From TrEMBL:
Molecular-function GO terms, alphabetical: acyltransferase activity, transferring groups other than amino-acyl groups
Keyword set includes Transferase: yes
PROSITE patterns: GNAT
Domain of life of the source: Bacteria
Residues in N-acetyltransferase domain copies: 12-173
Keywords from the UniProt entry: Transferase
Name under which the protein is recorded: GNAT family acetyltransferase
Organism the protein comes from: Pontibacter flavimaris
Pfam families, sorted: Acetyltransf_3
Keyword Transferase: yes
InterPro entries listed in its UniProt record: Acyl_CoA_acyltransferase, GNAT_dom, N-acetyltransferase
Length: 176
């Protein structure tokens, strides 16, 4: 396997998602919150989750050196969520996204993980602009994006989709 960078925060490890995360992804991708706010990925078995890793996650990791990270709580090694930087068709900039199991919500984990990836995007990967999209009803995501410093820019419709989404963006200043 390629040696992609793992990131660390005070409470969390952000490890590049791999085949070993398939059982966790199966659980996460089928939570009511994922299905409501992100969408059904039709992943109904560990084998389908492994295929999701091979077709949706690994190609971008190999192409860009970053992508989806499985978020692990350092205190007990439990996988609690996902956070990533995505090259998404129809968006200007790299999309920062996150999803956590419901029982780990409201504890600052998403902000901690996304803040670390936001910093890595700028300082390690040289990303100049972050973007984020969220559904109009996903108030928790909107609040977190604003806390991360992204600003609401308007509505957007992605290719091959007819739902209007809220678009947030953050440009990093050019370093001299």
């Amino acid at each position: 396997m390629d040696n992609f960078q793992t990131f660390e925060t005070e409470r969390l490890l952000l490890k590049p998602t791999s085949y070993e995360d398939a059982p966790f992804l199966l659980e996460l991708l089928n939570t009511p919150e994922w299905l409501q706010f992100i969408g059904d990925r039709n992943v109904r078995s560990v084998k389908a989750a492994e295929k999701y890793v091979s077709t949706r996650i690994l190609p971008q990791q190999k192409r860009l050196g970053y992508g989806n990270y499985t978020v692990i709580r350092k205190a007990d090694g439990v996988k609690i969520g996902s956070c990533g930087l995505y090259d998404r068709e129809g968006l200007e900039g790299i999309d920062i996204g996150f999803a956590f199991l419901k029982e780990y919500g409201g504890q600052g984990y998403a902000f901690e993980a996304a803040s670390r990836l936001k910093e890595a995007a700028r300082s390690i990967f040289g990303i100049r602009q972050l973007a984020a999209i969220t559904m109009k009803e996903n108030f928790a995501s909107q609040k977190l994006l604003e806390k991360l410093g992204l600003k609401y820019k308007g509505l957007i419709t992605l290719p091959n989709d007819d739902e209007e989404l809220l678009l947030y963006q953050l440009s990093f200043p050019i370093q001299s």
